[in-house]
Write a structure and sequence with these properties.
With about 600 residues, the protein is mainly beta. It folds into four domains: about 5-315, Neuraminidase (6 Propeller); about 320-395, Immunoglobulin-like, CATH 2.60.40.10; about 400-475, Immunoglobulin-like; about 485-600, 2-Layer Sandwich (60s Ribosomal Protein L30, Chain: A).
Length: about 600
Amino acid sequence: MNHSRFIVLLAIALTWLNLVEAQNTGHSFFDAVDIEIIYEKINTDASEIGPAFVENQLWYSAFSDKDIRRSKSGQTDKVFYKQFTSETDKNGYVINNERIQMGDFDTPFHEGPAFYAPETGELFLTLSNFIDVELEVDGLIVKRKRMRLRLVVAQLADNKWTIKEEMPFNDPVYSVGHPSASTTADTIFFTSDIPENNSGETDIYMAVRSNGKWGVPVNLGANVNSPSKEMFPFYHKSGMLIFASNRNGGKGGLDLYYCILGDNGFSAARPIEQLNSEADDFGLIIHNNSKLGYFVSNRSGFDADDNIFRIVFNEKLIAINGKVTDKLTNEPINGANVKLTDCNNNMVAQGKSTDDGTFVFENLLPRCYKLEASKQYYTTDEENVPETYYTTLQLAPAKELEVVVVDFDSRLPVVGAVISTKPNHSVNLNNDAIFYTRIENQPALNLETRAEGYLNQTKQISTNFEGFKRDTIFMMKRELNRTFVLENIYYDLDKWDILPESEIELDKLVAILKENPTVVVELGSHTDSRGSDNYNLVLSQRRSNSAVAYIVSKGIPKSNIVAKGYGETMLINHCKNGVWCSDNDHRTNRRTEFKILSWD
């Protein structure tokens, strides 16, 4: 088979199966159960293989009493497996030990194993026949008989099973047998030794039926097959493929393996440790209720040949344990709220951590779970529960921010102040004018503050801190001709260009004007007394013009701000012309102010 065609067919088949049936939750079927193995009394001292559920019957391949006697006497040349049935209840348990040989097929050779698809009523059955193959030996043509397996499809009509179809990929050159199928029976799995794309002695293949026609068989690849034998596949409705193999690494003989269908095909095969022995173990089937199954083994302690064993799958109850700790100190956290949900976000249980930070949820079925821990003054942590069913949840102390709103002049609390942390969310402060909040993930907090008789103000507070932080918002009264000094407005000597450090302070005025769009202010620039009066007047006006231009560039209407240079006409100390003063005294006079001229 062309390799690229093989990849395309495999992708189509696996996509179809994945959409229809596979529900892989991360924990396999065998992780979730304890297994009880019971010898089935339908066994004889000969071989029984190939169990299959067919309606309310257990089908299997076995020998008739006559053939058993012939075999014991050494006459084995015409001893063949035939289909036998035993009655079961609705849960799959054999309810009596009666063995009934079926005569519906009446073939001269082996019959079985079989697989029944209830949804379509189709019975996929393995049959065998001898093929005469011509061989040349020492120049002579001789005929040699070879046993090959083939698959047929039968249906029940008038209480009799009748073969309706030969599978189109049957071939006298190789064997096709051991069938299993998806729920809708439009994907079939089987064993074959097809020469092309075969990785070993026998491999597991699949074929998909579309519009009533079966496609080309597809080898399931290296995650399933090996250079050894892979045989007796069984596809479970959960998306799990079970098969037997004598590959390296097993316990001995044929061992049982399983793999799970996911988005990228079947996972790597894993042994079913609870069932495998040093003997041959194969032919595992699971009832639709997933509580019972059958498999075949020739393990010691029983009849010398293959026997059918019943398996009871008891759901294993597990406990999920964990611990809640402080992310910074690793100390246990007592009293944390711990919530357990399944992976579909359905609530399962909830509780609290103990003094040592531990918690436990008991008597749970093995499933996919999630844990969430939370506590006041801490961040929340959420984790997927690992396959060990133990995890540690770490809570980081939430950052706490306290902001007090005070009057710019008196430094007293502004009674009645309101702080907004986000649109449509405001906090009315008490008489102490203290605002408190917890910070978890935001990189900065923008606070908008307003109060009667004050200019509205905004302040951005960095949250790049740990633990607790205090900050202050200074509110400026809204009074005509009220002057406020802008700190840290600097210029180079005899220059009026805005320096980067000055932009930071001017941005604060920009924020105030944006919060108070009806307010008109004057921005005044002052110099010290050094230099001529006229020079200082011109220099201060240029500096004021430059600052106003910067503010207008930030989106403030030009009509809302007036530039005014006062030079040395409004000194605020004794450092006038002709008086010696220190540099610090002169610096006091070099200032930039804004004054409220009007508002609507």
